[in-house]
């Protein structure tokens, strides 16, 4: 007889001072699954990650997180209700379809010179500047600038735009009442801002992504909240994740100076492998979460419909069945899967993957050219969190 969810062992006690990776590794050592005090099950292997991303028996989380937090209205609720990330089936196709052509790899690849131009404006002034806050100087501004350019926001608005994004995104997870209020305030500001962008483009079309998107949704099935939410989704998803990934990747390179030296010596060869390894070693996404839609027995446990399963990226991306010596940061490794798992899979795979890779690669190239002797100034940053977008602490570099 198969086991039930209540038979799955609970997560071990957190030991003060543990890293997220150590905590999740200890949970994985207990068996293929662990459950938290709310009954949410976590899985740990790459095989289970591939299994639960199958739309034939699981679905994307929709408004359940909002409801669990007691949120039934407000700017963040409206965003989650309308965005493609938290939709399934035909609704998801209607929301994603108009953006797919705009984010085709060929079109995004043509943005590489613009990304390079912006990194070349941001990085050289840091040389000789002493101790620099990396998130403020480069990791935050670069993705914010690119997303702003894509949606037609003027450069002068970028500092305000970025601050509101980094605050609003906190409301996507369970959070304190104080954070919820601040997140709703900032999401409300972003909604008003995007409404103004949309109105301006409808009145004055241009040859850009926003005009093309608005043309494709004209007369279609999306309501105004959904139209706005897709643009907001690009802004939110395209800013904070790249900010954290760039910080984590540069941190690991500086903690492995022999590998940073390889990037410095030949950035055209080693920037892309360094990005792939940085995304694997300390991922900015903590877990991918899905609901089951039919009963399924896995590893001797019967999961009924509507079971919530979260697969840990921290353990799946260090799965010894996939990666040799998985706890070692190694930009020379050749065992990455063809499609990097951190970007998800199936119809929900991250639409901005190509842009994120370009931003990360061009940033590393520029840093290698202009700041070859940079070093950490103080402790390395810490990514914290087990689900959704992980928070990154400050990082200072000496240039």
Automatic annotation (TrEMBL):
The keyword S-adenosyl-L-methionine does not apply. It holds the Pfam family p450. InterPro entries: Cyt_P450, Cyt_P450_B, Cyt_P450_CS, Cyt_P450_sf. Keywords: Heme, Iron, Metal-binding, Monooxygenase, Oxidoreductase. GO terms for molecular function: heme binding; iron ion binding; monooxygenase activity; oxidoreductase activity, acting on paired donors, with incorporation or reduction of molecular oxygen. PANTHER family: CYTOCHROME P450 YJIB-RELATED, P450, PUTATIVE (EUROFUNG)-RELATED. Belongs to the cytochrome P450 family. This is Cytochrome P450. It comes from Seohaeicola zhoushanensis.
């Amino acid at each position: 007889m198969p086991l039930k969810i209540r038979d799955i062992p609970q997560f071990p006690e957190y030991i003060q001072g543990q890293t997220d990776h150590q905590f999740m590794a200890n949970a994985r050592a207990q068996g293929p699954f662990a459950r938290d005090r709310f009954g949410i099950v976590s899985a740990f292997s790459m095989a289970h990650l591939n299994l639960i991303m199958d739309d034939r028996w699981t679905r994307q989380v929709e408004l359940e997180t909002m409801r669990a937090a007691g949120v039934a209205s407000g700017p963040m609720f409206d965003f989650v209700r309308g965005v493609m990330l938290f939709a399934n089936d035909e609704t998801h196709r209607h929301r994603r379809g108009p953006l797919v052509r705009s984010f085709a790899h060929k079109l995004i690849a043509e943005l590489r010179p613009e990304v390079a131009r912006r990194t070349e404006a941001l990085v050289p002034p840091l040389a000789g500047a002493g101790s620099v806050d990396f998130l403020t100087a480069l990791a935050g501004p670069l993705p914010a600038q690119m997303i702003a350019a894509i949606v037609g926001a003027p450069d002068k608005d970028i500092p305000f735009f970025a601050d509101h994004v980094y605050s609003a995104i906190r409301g996507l997870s369970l959070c304190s009442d104080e954070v919820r209020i601040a997140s709703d305030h900032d999401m409300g500001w972003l909604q008003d801002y995007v409404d103004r962008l949309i109105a301006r483009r409808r009145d004055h079309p241009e040859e850009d992504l926003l005009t093309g998107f608005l043309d494709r949704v004209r007369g279609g099935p999306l309501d105004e909240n959904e139209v706005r939410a897709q643009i907001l989704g690009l802004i939110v998803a395209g800013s904070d994740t790249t900010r954290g990934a760039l910080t984590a990747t540069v941190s690991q390179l500086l903690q492995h100076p022999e590998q940073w030296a390889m990037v410095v010596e030949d950035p055209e060869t080693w920037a892309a492998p360094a990005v792939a390894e940085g995304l694997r070693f300390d991922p900015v996404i903590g877990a991918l979460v899905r609901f089951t839609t039919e009963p399924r027995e896995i590893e001797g446990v019967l999961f009924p419909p509507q079971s919530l399963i979260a697969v840990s990226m921290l353990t799946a991306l260090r799965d010894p069945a996939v990666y040799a010596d998985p706890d070692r940061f190694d930009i020379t490794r050749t065992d990455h899967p063809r499609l990097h798992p951190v970007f998800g899979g199936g119809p929900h795979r991250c639409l901005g993957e190509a842009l994120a890779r370009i931003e990360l690669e061009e940033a590393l190239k520029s840093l290698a050219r202009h700041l070859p002797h940079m070093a950490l100034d103080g402790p390395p940053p810490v990514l914290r969190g087990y689900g959704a977008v992980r928070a990154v602490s400050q990082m200072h570099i000496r240039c």
